[in-house]
Amino acid sequence: MAKKPRLPLERWEIALVKAMLARGRYSDQEILAYFTRPTRSVNHRVISEIRTESKHKAVKAATDDDLSDYLATWPDIDPATGLSVRGDELLIKAREAMIAAVHTFNGAGLTFRAELFIVTSVIAWTYLMHAFYRREGIDYRYKNADGTVKKTTSGEDCYWELGMCLRHGRCPIPGGAVKNLEFLIMIRHEIEHRMTSRIDDAVSAKMQACCINFNEAIKKLFGGQYGLERRLPIALQFVTFSSDQRSILKKASSLPAHIETLMDEFHNGLSDEQMADPDFAYRVVFVPKLANRKSAADLAVEFVKPGSEEAAEINRVLLKEVEKKRYLGKQIIEIMQAEGYPKFKQGSHTALWHALDAKNPANNFGRDGEYKGMWVWYESWLQRVRAHCQEHAADYQDVAVDLHA
After folding, report:
1. Which of 51, 98, 165, 350 could be disulfide-bonded to 124 (CB atoms 3.0-4.6 Å)?
2. What sign has the CA pseudo-torsion 289, 207, 123, 11?
3. Domain segments of the chain: what residues?
4. E strands within 107-210?
5. Angle at the Cα of 196 from the Cα atoms of 193 and 199, rounded to 5 degrees
């Protein structure tokens, strides 16, 4: 359930209420009607506190012109959500920025879609976090050592960037979603300062998770009516891809070395549980489906309830056919060294796979990785390497060990 705001009226609204009271022609009920909106309600006690100055005494009344302008444009609301354009500006901007990010990525004819999505989605999340902290009464401005508010070169208040919002102790975003955003922020910093070629395929799972996480967050924090699922339908595709075509496309789109290095470093810092968290990277597999009923034959996407028998069967098939456990060469070497073969090094591994023609697809020891020039090994190769080390233990151990002792 979305939480009701703690502060019923903002400072600029209090100033307007004082101006309305000064005019003397508005009842409390009429004033309440002007300042009640879907995201919050205002009661008579608030108006009474302003009238008697038991609270908000320091706030000056708005000018007569400011009040007239407000009344002339009331109700100034966003037609799609019913949000106040001024009072809920941060929330409106958050939704619009994420909608723009998705529309941009789904738009035909664009080359650098991932970069555009990442930059715009970070803006969306920043507005969303600012809206949350503002509602909670948490000051999200940077402070100087003396406690004064830090200013920009143009004299404006300096507000937290997204990274700072995520590090605050009251951040309401789940850990997996935070890791997802930290990853995208890292990529954004890199593309801001260096030229990149296409990275769409390499980060697509993270971008999908970013969208879903945002939608869940805005609904949880502010209400289900602000979800984006009705605004952003499923994207239609012109083609399907076989696994061979997909592999060719991945090889053709070379990932910049500096981006690949950053991604590897980030991923190596995550646990298996964090890597598998759908809040960090959301992966789906589409399989052709024949409908059992004519009425369902036009359903392009079917959602299966987690934990159901059908979901378990899909999981068994996909895990068997698609998601074999994979290892990088250095991981194979590290595992062998940890098992007591410290002399098994890069050269040993390279010589072994060459001797056994292990990269021949017919041997099913591994396959091409996600990026050009990358190779990943299956569990079967790990077992073969382990057997080799056991057979030649004297060559790879520091001292001779009796394996049968």
Report:
1. 98
2. positive
3. 11-73, 77-321, 326-396
4. none
5. 125
